[in-house]
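[SOLVED] Need 3D model of a two-part complex

Original post:
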Amino acid sequence: MKIIAVCGMGIGTSVLLKMNTEKVLELLGVQAEVQAADMAKAKREGADADIILTTPELVFQLEHMPGIIVPIEHVFDLIEIRQKLANVLS
Amino acid sequence: MSALGDALGDKSIKLSVSASTWTEAITLAGDALELSGRATAAYTRAMIEAFEELGPYMVIAPGIALAHARPSANVLSTGLSLVVLSESVKFGSERFDPVRIVFGLAALDHDGHIDLMAGLSELLLDDTKVNMLLQSDNESEVRRLLG
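Solution:
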């Protein structure tokens, strides 16, 4: 499974989201590749991503992507990330 | 020293400073990146433009903003600055306004700052440390807190 964490610049929020998502995936026992990306990279390399994580403000820029978009309100909230990922994975 | 401590160079920390708008607050974070040799003045302008373009998603947690722009020639070395405002400022974030802590982030590329971000994540997950950071006006105390 491929997951991309997307933000505007690809160095801030997306990196935090990737790190915290990796923690959650380990807890859930799910194997997946998680990449951090800016908008341009997401559009270029994210067509085969199963899940797209981003912040609610940026969802509208990614709606054309084939993967399931999961908006994360709080990138430090491991409980929120776990619940939302578990919902999508089940 | 920790990755976070290393990322915050000399003159990169400003405590108990005041700003009346988000532009002023980001400028303070940019000035501290400049003073500590991380980035040029053009990077500060790029951070403000990025915030204008992409909006308040850079407010990443309640009261905390991570100001940054794309890696570019305006970045001299990868690192952080830290601004703690004496009074909070509205950044236009529906979820997390108002802001009192602004980190400025300069990155040379997309993946050379992972240790620094892991340190930042660890700090921001710790409410006790964040509260102590908000209440301190002493740089050595803050540096001890950052590890």
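Edit: Chain A touches chain B at residues 7-13, 15-16, 19-20, 36, 38, 55, 57-58, 73-76 (CB under 8 Å).
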